[in-house]
């Protein structure tokens, strides 16, 4: 890691921190596994086209409802191996799951990014400038928080119709408030500290104060919150797709796959077990990582890992 | 000489903690005694082991990380050998403790009246609520809280620091204990309130001939309120004896350093005296005398041999090779 | 004190009503202006004439402020109008051309309200079950941090929070209803009917409430007043139940409130999975049938319940936190 820095001591200190985090991660095997899982998941989601063997959309009635680890006859007599079986229309489960991962990951990451950006900006403004601006923003936030975000998402998606883009936008629309609340709280508590006052006293401009002094403190709590929100949104997407408000079939989405699998619960239970399991493992990993991040960025608890 | 009864006898007490960094010997083989009616001061800076000693006496240490060796005799009971349940009956009733930060030592969501009555009823089962309430008001008047009858319904956050400390004192003396331990009782208070509280403590003490242990880092407090003093450093006792003598003519260089550090009549611009260096890290104690890295009188012997607490002159004991 | 309390009640009540009004107005605007209810209902099938007919019938052709007035009047008198068609699969198939677009005279709100008790029952069972399990679990974990028991509880709560409710419901059905046959797969009536849905609903709540009970108890236990109380000889059980639990109760109550709302949200899908005849299942059906008035009615009821929960939580704050009351500036 190249660090351009005048102060060599500082550079050394920063370098130490990164490898220490890595070491701390290895010390917690479950979290380490979770991180690996997530990395593989993201990798699979991005490079889905390159790594799958089958077409997720093309039905093939002849090989419908095959159990995991079974084979089917493919084109030209080639035996197709289905690691996780096939669904009702003969499509390979593993392939569909990987494409479903792409949907979940994009919904989660994109929605959280949008919500997080808007929320953080509004939170900074509200916390820093206070008074009227803060009042208006926080009243809106309170309004949003009084109603469960899923209700709002449900209704709006119902009215506007489903689809990937709509879903991302709506989910971002209902979740920005959690970021605003967090950021505002931190900003307010920081605003009163002496180092901010000192910066102001020497004439630092508002934007400089915000970017150089307040923002760094927001990074870890935001990271933790973002991770948790991604988990939440993946669950939300699954639920909304289940209700038919998300993607349209035959697009593979984990939520839709569970909904479809319902009919075959007796003959082909893997159709419902596998996508749900994928969601579960993903959310579990995200929650584990978020918890770990929270403890490791807390200076009080940090010593336990970083010695 | 007036032979007073010894009410607390600490013999060779050591407390060590197993930590990730190694073994920490917070208290290293100390012995002292407390006589009935006496006020003993324990003087020392942060990390000297004074609070840990008190926690050990009261059985407030978590035993897995902490290990206690030695004996603590209270009256006829050996505190290191009794069960936690028995210890709990002693606490508050025969030995009580007041802490440093009065406001946080009270439950913020319960009224002071409730907490006083609770104290009384827990240790005296069968006490009726109305009797407890009466006694609580009496106690509050004893510690000089004005309008006690109304104040009994107040919450801790409604009271000032001094008032909260008075409530804690009321709680501590409510069952007329034999020993009252005051751990930095005035550190969190204003100077004016400090002297009021110390006066109150002295007054209460004289009513019931209660013994008191006063723990502090403030020499002035020790000088004014105690008859005997222990000077602790890095878990060891450096000096022990009558307060007057220790302060006017200290035998140990550390004690001398503490006294010299009190700002007196230095002129403007003159440097204040400071004991150079800082207390040792308890996992890496130096060999020999723990103070030698900072001592002006250091010689070869100090590095190699740990000085024992021995009689120096009159009735004093000190742990220095040169006393 | 009494005046402060009634003041507080009044303010909160008005606030909730206002919130309800605002939300339903937004629902109105979004539903009727942004989307076309008639088109939605007819699911893009049917000619322009059909659409216009339905719109006329539904009063959608009237200018917007008249519609709004009708809507508001309806809300106050608790009349959300009639459902488009409940129970029929596609109107164009059912009725002769002259009568197309007529609504069935099924008033929506009574229809939805009919289903309330079933939902309330399910939610109540879930919440009570969750709280009864979580708080002792949380206390147990807080008393023995970092022991094996604590670690196991941690893992379980994490799993509970990560689970997909309806998928878990299906897993439960597969294991307990289909394979083992201990419980019925769906329906309503006896105790065995409520068990699986309630369990599926409570999983997340149990995870979250246990986590929070444990952490807020641990926080409280490290506070100075606990040590001081121990130093006074107050027995441990008393400290645990009377001092610590009371002080830690505020965040715990908040979480219980949040999770109740989550259960109200989750009930929509779970009822559908288990064919439990409650509001949730009705909402799902209404969504499938694209029946706007019905959806408005169910959302109205659900939001009323949410506001009630919030109100109750605020009420509990009032009693639990003396600090908030005395500083009634």
Short description:
Chain A is mostly helical and 307 residues long. Helices cover 73% and strands 3% of the residues of chain A.
Reported for the largest beta sheet of chain C, the result is:
none
What portion of residues of chain B is helical? 25-40%
The termini of chain C sit apart by 13 Å
As residue ranges, the low-confidence spans of chain B are none
Q: Tell me which oligomeric state these chains represent.
A: heterotrimer
* Gyration radius from CA atoms of chain B, angstroms: 21 Å
Q: In what range is the share of β-strand residues of chain B?
A: 15-25%
Name the largest protein-protein interface in this structure: A-C, 38 and 42 residues
Radius of gyration of chain C: 25 Å
Helix content of chain C: over 70%
Report the strand count of chain B: 12
The structural class of chain C is mainly alpha
Strand content of chain C: under 5%
Contiguous runs where pLDDT drops below 50 for at least 5 residues of chain C: 85-105
- Total number of beta strands of chain C: 0
Number of alpha- plus pi-helical segments of chain C: 14
Helix and strand succession of chain B? EEEHEEHEHHHHEHEHEEHHHEE
Write the layout of secondary structure elements.
The complex is a heterotrimer of chains A (about 300), B (about 325) and C (about 325).
Chain A: H1 8-27, H2 29-46, H3 48-51, E1 70-73, E2 79-82, H4 93-129, H5 131-146, H6 149-160, H7 164-191, H8 194-201, H9 206-242, H10 254-261, H11 270-296, H12 299-306
Antiparallel strand pairs in A: 1-2
Helix pairs in contact in A: 2-4, 2-11, 4-5, 4-7, 4-9, 4-11, 5-7, 6-7, 7-9, 9-10, 9-11, 10-11
Chain B: E1 6-19, E2 22-35, E3 39-43, H1 50-58, E4 66-74, E5 77-78, H2 84-90, E6 95-98, H3 112-123, H4 129-142, H5 148-151, H6 161-173, E7 179-183, H7 191-208, E8 211-216, H8 219-225, E9 228-233, E10 236-242, H9 243-248, H10 253-260, H11 300-304, E11 310-311, E12 317-318
Chain C: H1 2-34, H2 37-42, H3 48-57, H4 64-76, H5 91-94, H6 108-143, H7 148-162, H8 165-179, H9 191-221, H10 224-231, H11 236-274, H12 279-289, H13 292-320, H14 322-326
């Amino acid at each position: 890691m190249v660090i351009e820095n005048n102060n060599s001591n500082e550079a050394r200190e920063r370098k130490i921190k990164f490898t220490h985090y890595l070491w701390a991660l290895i010390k917690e095997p479950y979290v380490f596994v979770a991180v690996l899982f997530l990395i593989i998941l993201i990798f699979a989601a991005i490079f889905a086209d390159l790594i799958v063997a089958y077409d997720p959309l093309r039905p093939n009635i002849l090989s419908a409802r095959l159990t995991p680890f079974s084979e089917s006859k493919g084109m030209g007599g080639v035996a197709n191996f289905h690691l996780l079986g096939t669904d009702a229309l003969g499509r390979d489960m593993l392939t569909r799951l990987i494409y479903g991962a792409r949907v979940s990951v994009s919904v989660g990451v994109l929605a959280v990014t949008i919500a997080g950006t808007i929320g953080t900006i509004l939170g900074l403004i509200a916390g820093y400038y206070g008074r009227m601006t803060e009042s208006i923003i926080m009243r809106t936030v309170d309004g949003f928080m009084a109603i469960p975000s899923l209700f709002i998402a449900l209704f709006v998606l119902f009215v506007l119709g489903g689809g990937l883009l709509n879903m991302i936008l709506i989910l971002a629309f209902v979740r920005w408030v959690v970021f605003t609340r967090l950021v505002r709280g931190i900003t307010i508590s920081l605003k009163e500290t002496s180092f901010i006052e000192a910066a102001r006293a020497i004439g630092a401009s508002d934007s400089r104060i915000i970017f150089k002094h307040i923002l760094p403190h927001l990074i870890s709590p935001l990271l933790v919150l973002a991770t948790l929100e991604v988990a939440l949104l993946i669950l939300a997407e699954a639920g909304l797709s289940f209700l038919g408000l998300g993607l349209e079939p035959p697009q593979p989405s984990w939520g839709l796959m569970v909904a479809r699998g319902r009919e075959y619960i007796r003959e082909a239970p893997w159709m419902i077990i596998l996508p749900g399991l994928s969601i579960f493992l993903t959310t579990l990993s995200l929650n584990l990582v978020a918890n770990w991040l929270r403890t490791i960025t807390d200076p009080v608890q940090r010593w336990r890992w970083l010695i | 000489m007036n032979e007073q009864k010894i009410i607390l006898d600490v013999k060779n007490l050591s407390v060590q903690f197993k930590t990730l960094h190694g073994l920490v010997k917070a208290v290293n083989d100390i012995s002292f005694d407390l006589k009935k009616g006496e006020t003993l001061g324990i003087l020392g800076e942060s990390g000297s082991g004074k609070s840990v000693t008190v926690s050990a006496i009261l059985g407030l240490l978590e035993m897995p990380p902490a290990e206690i060796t030695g004996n603590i005799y209270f009256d006829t009971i050996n505190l290191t050998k009794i069960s936690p349940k028995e210890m709990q009956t002693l606490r508050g009733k025969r030995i009580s403790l007041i802490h440093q930060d009065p406001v946080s030592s009270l439950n913020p969501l319960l009224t002071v009246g409730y907490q006083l009555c609770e104290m009384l009823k827990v240790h005296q089962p069968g006490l009726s609520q109305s009797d407890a309430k009466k006694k609580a008001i009496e106690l509050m008047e004893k510690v000089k809280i004005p309008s006690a009858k109304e104040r009994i319904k107040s919450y801790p956050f409604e009271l000032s620091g001094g008032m909260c400390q008075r409530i804690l004192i009321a709680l501590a003396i409510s069952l007329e204990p034999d020993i009252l331990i005051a751990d930095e009782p005035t550190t969190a208070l204003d100077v004016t309130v400090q002297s009021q509280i110390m006066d109150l403590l002295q007054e209460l003490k004289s009513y019931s001939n209660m013994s008191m242990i006063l723990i502090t880092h403030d020499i002035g407090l020790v000088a004014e309120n105690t008859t005997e003093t222990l000077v602790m450093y890095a878990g060891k006792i450096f000096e022990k004896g009558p307060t007057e003598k220790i302060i006017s003519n200290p035998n140990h260089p550390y004690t001398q350093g503490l006294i010299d550090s009190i700002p007196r009549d230095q002129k403007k611009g003159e440097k204040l005296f400071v004991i150079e260096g800082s207390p040792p890290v308890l996992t890496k104690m130096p060999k020999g005398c723990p103070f030698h890295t900072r001592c002006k009188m250091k010689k070869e012997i100090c590095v190699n041999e740990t000085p024992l607490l021995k009689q120096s002159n009159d009735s004093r004991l000190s742990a220095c090779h040169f006393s | 004190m009494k005046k402060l309390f009634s003041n507080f009640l009044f303010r909160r009540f008005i606030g909730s009503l206002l919130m309800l009004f605002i939300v339903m107005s937004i629902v109105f605007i979004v539903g009727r202006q942004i989307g076309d209810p008639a088109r939605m209902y007819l699911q893009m099938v049917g000619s322009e004439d059909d659409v216009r007919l339905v719109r006329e019938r539904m009063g959608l052709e009237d200018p917007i402020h008249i519609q709004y007035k009708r809507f508001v009047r309806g809300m106050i008198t608790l009349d959300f109008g009639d459902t488009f068609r409940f129970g029929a699969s596609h109107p164009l198939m059912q009725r002769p051309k002259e009568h197309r677009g007529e609504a069935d005279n099924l008033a929506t709100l009574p229809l939805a309200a009919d289903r309330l008790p079933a939902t309330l029952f399910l939610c109540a069972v879930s919440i009570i079950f969750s709280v009864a399990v979580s708080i002792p679990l949380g206390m147990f974990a807080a008393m023995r941090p970092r022991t094996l028991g604590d670690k196991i509880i941690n893992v379980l709560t994490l799993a509970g929070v990560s689970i997909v409710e309806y998928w878990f419901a299906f897993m439960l059905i597969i294991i307990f209803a289909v394979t083992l046959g201990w419980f019925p797969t769906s329906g309503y009536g006896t105790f065995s009917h409520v068990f699986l849905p309630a369990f599926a609903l409570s999983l997340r709540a149990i995870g979250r409430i246990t986590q929070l009970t444990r952490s807020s108890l641990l926080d409280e236990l490290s506070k100075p007043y606990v040590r001081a109380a121990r130093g006074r000889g107050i027995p441990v059980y008393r400290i645990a139940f009377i001092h610590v639990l009371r002080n830690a109760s505020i965040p715990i109550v908040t979480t219980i409130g949040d999770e109740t709302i989550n259960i109200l949200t989750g009930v929509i899908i779970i009822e559908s999975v288990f064919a439990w005849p409650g509001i949730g299942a009705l909402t799902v059906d209404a969504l499938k049938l694209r029946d706007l008035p019905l959806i408005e009615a169910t959302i109205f009821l659900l939001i009323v319940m949410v506001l009630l929960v919030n109100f109750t939580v605020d009420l509990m704050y009032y009693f639990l936190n003396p600090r908030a009351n005395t500083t009634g500036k």
